[in-house]
Amino acid sequence: MNQISGLLKKEHMGEHILVVLMVVYLVMGFQTPEPIANIVDTLLGKISIFLVVVYLFLNSSPILAVLALFVAFDLLRRSSAVTGIDALRKYAPTEERKSSQFTAFNQFPYTLEQEVVKKMAPIVQSGRTLTKPSYKPMLDNLHDASSLN
Q1: Is residue 13 part of a domain?
Q2: In a domain? residue 51
């Protein structure tokens, strides 16, 4: 009973007002205004929110700190929805998605051409010497072109 009366002192009134405001923010589901969302959805904004939550964990009641953690997470989520970063993460193609689509497009069945080429006897087999051909090549008319040699 003594602890409850200690929480209701005037020095803790600011924490109580902050708890009420945080609960109203979480329950009502207000959309974050675009100028605030643009500030929050930057690296500096996220770091500052993280520092405020850590400060509340160190210097205020645990209930307020845990509630601030939930509000911070929800504020970041709502801000990314307003700025469009959330939609980019969901719908913009990543390299993994693109490569999986490319591999799906490049799956071809075994063709007749591949089968015929595989059945053909190779011209040169390793380990054997070639025999001299039975024909003699002839040079066609050069049409006044010079020889390469």
Answers
A1: yes
A2: yes
Cα 49 from Cα 2, distance rounded (Å): 33
The identity of residue 29, as a single letter, is G
Please state the pTM of the whole predicted model: 0.56
> With contact defined as beta carbons under 8 Å apart, do 76 and 25 qualify?
no
Whether 131 is covered by a domain: the verdict is no
For residue 1, tell me if it sits in a domain: no
- Spell out, as residue ranges, where the chain has pLDDT lower than 50: none
Q: Structural domain of residue 37, as residue ranges? A: 7-91
Give the C-alpha distances (Å, rounded to integers) separating 76 from 19, 99, 106, 131, 135.
18, 30, 40, 78, 81
User: For 82-102, how does the pLDDT look when each residue is reduced to its tens digit (9 = 90+)?
Assistant: 888 877 777 878 888 888 888
Which amino acid appears at position 61 of this protein?
A: S
